[in-house]
Specification:
Layout lengths: L4 H50 L8 H33 L13 H8 L1 H32 L5 H9 L6 H11 L12 H8 L13 H27 L3 H9 L4 H12 L1 H16 L3 H6 L9 H11 L3 H31 L1
Helix pairs in contact: 2-14, 3-14, 4-8, 4-11, 6-8, 8-11, 11-14, 13-14
Length: 349
């Protein structure tokens, strides 16, 4: 097929505009975050050198000027937060009280629909199952890995292999596990690892991702497989940070490995455990890619984030999609508040 420059010319122009915009934005950020601070630093240094040479007191910036100077550097961050978080959050909240076309106010009708529609109640139950199981199971496996590979001969290699799934996107991991759960008709050779294992034991192959509620637990396995490496790295670092004198004193007292784990290791790594559980809980509440890629939310596997997308962008129900988004935001808030209070208590302690 012959390449037609005239036909493809608009696409190249769009590409050029995109590259130009990228250069302008990145150049502007570099100018703001590097060149401007460097200029102020050189100017301040010159003032200090001149004051030292003349023997005059070092010049001090007025507090008001220091506040303006700090605000200057905080302004880009505040602007991005306002544009990317605050404004959309307010708009989404307002849309959740309006109809599908965002024209008329309907009050709490969208929230009532959320808890009265059987399919959406199923979505909420699925999300609850995800939030209860993923942090607990992933943290447990991460802790098990951390304890088993700690000071092992091939510790670095083992940790690298365990952490490897974290380098894979949720979409890529879901595709990999879809092959594990793959099904071919009876009498055909099974290419799915799970079905091949079942057949080798004399069982019958199944369409695993079509059987509810088993399919939800199979999707949870994907999330656990990815996040267990993260939990292992954090908890392993916490275990290595336990003071050696505490460990030696416990061994001299003759404690068993089981007592060492529950009485020394667990209390010492409690802050790290809380961080891992909170982080995984927030990530689980927002899970979208795995469900979208593996089942598209069909067969009773949908969760809040996936259903929010469906309602807002597939079905054109802006009010219902926004209500789901607000509800998801409300679920995340207590976890964030708990983590902030926990970090504050650790800092004060």
């Amino acid at each position: 097929m012959e390449f037609d420059w005239l036909e493809e010319q608009p696409k190249f122009f769009m590409l050029g505009y995109g590259l130009l915009a990228f250069v302008v934005v990145v150049g502007g950020l570099l100018l703001l975050l590097d060149v401007v601070p460097s200029w102020f630093a050189r100017r301040r240094e010159a003032q200090l050198v001149a004051a030292a040479a003349s023997g005059t007191p070092l010049p001090r910036r007025p507090k008001q000027r220091e506040g303006m100077f700090a605000l200057f550097f905080l302004l880009p961050t505040l602007l991005l937060l306002a544009v990317g978080l605050v404004v959309p959050a307010i708009r989404t909240t307002l849309l959740s009280f309006m109809d599908s076309g965002s024209n008329d106010w309907v009050g709490l009708r969208n929230y009532g629909w959320m808890f009265s529609e059987d399919s959406i109640v199923r979505v909420l139950i699925n999300t609850l199952i995800w939030v209860l199981l993923v942090p607990l199971v992933a943290t447990s496996f991460g802790l098990l890995y951390a304890v088993m590979v700690d000071k092992a001969r091939f510790e670095a290699v083992a940790k690298s292999l365990i952490f490897l799934p974290m380098a894979i996107s949720f979409v890529g991991a879901s595709i990999i596990w879809k092959f594990v759960y793959a099904f071919r008709g009876d009498g055909q050779e099974q290419i799915g690892l799970l079905n091949q294992f079942v057949v080798s034991l004399g069982g019958e192959p199944k369409q695993w991702l079509l059987e509810s509620p088993l399919n939800t637990f199979l999707l949870i396995v994907i999330m656990v497989w990815i996040q267990a490496g993260f939990a292992m790295v954090v908890l392993s670092a916490a275990i290595k940070a336990i003071p050696a004198d505490i460990v030696e004193a416990a061994r001299l007292d003759g404690v068993s490995p089981w007592q060492m784990f529950w009485q020394i290791t667990m209390p010492s790594i409690r802050p790290a455990l809380i961080v891992v559980v909170v982080t995984l809980s927030i990530a689980t509440l927002k899970v979208f890619d795995i469900v979208r890629t593996a089942t598209n939310g069909n067969y009773d596997t949908s969760v809040i984030a996936n259903e929010m997308y469906n309602q807002a962008f597939r079905y054109g129900e802006n009010g219902q999609g926004s209500a789901l988004a607000v509800f998801l935001f409300i679920l995340v808030i207590p976890i964030v508040i708990y983590q902030i209070r926990n970090l504050r208590q650790q800092r004060e302690g």
